[in-house]
Amino acid sequence: IDRNDVPPLTHANIENTFASLYSQRTEMFERGVLEVFRGLSWDYKTHTGVMFGKKLILRQVIDCIGLVNHDGANRLDDLTRVLSVLDGQPEPDSRMGAYRTMAGARHVTGTEIAFKYFRVKLFKNGNGHLVFSRPDLVDKLNAILARHYPSALALSRDEGKSQDAE
Asked: What pTM does this model have?
């Protein structure tokens, strides 16, 4: 757009653009999972640096006075969308997202809020401790990481069990 190198607005160009986006949807989806993973702070021992675990610590879910942080709520919504797709469910209505869910708990630190695929406990420092409720979906998140970083991931829970039996 900056170079003014935009194709003309025609029916064929619009169809081609949407067809291209549709064909790249899996790649875009996986990039979103990778971005969530890269956005985690490795300052916490629950974050292994090589895979998603059962718990995540997300920074700035609420602000310093206990109000919901829009960016933090958006990250939770992104994670909910990813988990919904991995679960084979339709994406949830964005109007009923994390911001609205957490708004009822404003100014209440120490509150634990349940979402469909995880629960989040809010703390005064703005962090949210997220605990996944579906380990099978965490395995699917880790499978996406493994496709992009094959030598970095540890064994999945099932693979570890089968090797323990040997």
From this structure: 0.73
